[in-house]
Design brief:
binds iron/sulfur cluster; 7-stranded parallel sheet; 36% helix; alpha/beta; 314 residues; TIM Barrel
Length: 314
Amino acid sequence: MDERFHSFAAFLRRKFPGTRVRKIPIDAGFTCPNRDGTLGRDGCVFCDPFAAGPVATAGWTIERQVEVRLRRSPATSFIAYFQANCNTHAPQDELRRRYEAALGHPRVVGLAVATRPDALPAPALALLQEMSGRTWLSVELGLQSIHERSLAWLRRRHTYAQFVSAFAELRRRGIDVVVHLIVGIPGETRADMHATVAAMNDLRPAGVKFHLLHVLRGAELQARHERGELPLLARAEYVDIICGLLERLDPGIVVHRLAVDREAGLLIAPAWAQDKAAVLGDVDAEMRRRRSFQGRLARADAPRPAVDKRVPML
Ligand code: SF4
């Protein structure tokens, strides 16, 4: 298909030619410093009780999660996505044991490790560097916005400067980074969101994930939504904003996500976000209507990263 942006699916086809690769979500049993009392106990305002991880397999051993997911999937190879909580928030031995539990399966060809910018101490960085020499690895770093007032609103309890420092440490070790961003944070203008994308163009991560601000069952945002205090984007508004962000995003940065992808029953609002295929179809149609593509409005002089292992755009 003639894609208007550099999708993760296209990236996988180029990275693993002839192999059908899928990402499988893993809850490896970690905690999060924003929930276990290290930084706070209430977490980010958008975080659900499963800490963004899989619901059906939460609490299972890693080996069993991998086994069951693989049995249910038609793909031939898999990237184990350590998704729930903060997957570098433990001593190095423990991190190694849990990563190895997934990598031990012969059909697991890579790791994606989700974490916070302030949870990457030297032993974790050293282990990730070692792992990236052995397998395909990306670290998924939650940022959400470059704007401090937005980080405070989201109750992230880290700064943009901490993110930049963690990002630089990972890149210095040759580790690919995928940055998570939230679209529709109350108080953010389109110019604010464009500034976040411009900052990504300067940093040049391997990938980004765009998340619509949405309400999940059990997250603090649920109460705000029920009190009528939470402005949420309409579908047409979201599609229009996303297309503007794609047009400004460096074409070499892989887009890992554009639409909400959460288990049925957890998503409360906006209801339209439940239909992921329709949202993706609308984004595609709008990009075609504009005769546009990823990076059409991006700066041409964005700096190159020191280490560049990315696959070129199709
Ligand atoms: S979103 Fe991530 S950083 Fe925030 S509380 Fe949940 S697991 Fe922790």
